[in-house]
Amino acid sequence: MCSRGHWRPSEDQKLRQLVQQYGPHNWNAIAEKLQGRSGKSCRLRWFNQLDPKINRSPFTEEEEERLLAYHREFGNRWANIAKLFPDKRDRSVEFYNFLPVNTDSNSSEVIDHQRKDEVEVEQEATEEQQGSTNTTVPFIDFLSVN
Length: 146
Description:
By secondary structure, the protein is mainly α. It is built from seven helices and two strands. It folds into two domains: 9-50, Orthogonal Bundle (Arc Repressor Mutant, subunit A), CATH 1.10.10.60; 61-128, no CATH class.
């Protein structure tokens, strides 16, 4: 087995044909028909990029609420949570736009970074409207001063 790097469009097309012919099951047999690709590589390519059942649309508000509720229930057990979203990719569930606050895998406290960014933008706009003074220190290049 050799490392092939990026998938070419012709390899993607061949993988689609093989999955249509054999089904998304025996990945080692499928990989034998793709020069230099492993069964694992074929399986990951199919389930993460090529499977037409993948829902690539952003999470709806209802899905976000379900995701946060499942995270509170299961902690960082992303494989278990991803099974509850069969039309989403495992990675899109795991790497949704929030991160755990601490490293305790059973902790359910999370920060929704997208909402946090929105709040920060609103706060900055409010400060600008109130005419807050600019407290940044100007840069002085002492090496170029005569």
